[in-house]
Specification:
With 71 residues, the protein is of the alpha+beta class. Helices cover 28% and strands 35% of the residues.
Amino acid sequence: MDYRKVAEQIYEKVGKKENLVSAAHCATRLRLVIGDNGKCDSKAVEEIEGVKGVFFASGQLQIILGTRDCK
């Protein structure tokens, strides 16, 4: 898996830096606070290689990441 490509695709689909308020992570999740949820294509993020799930919780877009072998 090309992690740089995955990161670039996520960045593009969430609306780039203009739409990112903050970002945090843990071992399996990328947690993003989005300025305008309407500019975020969460369905397209779900289709990116390595993304296992996407959901909104506690005001954050949470992206679950894993290896390609787990899907």
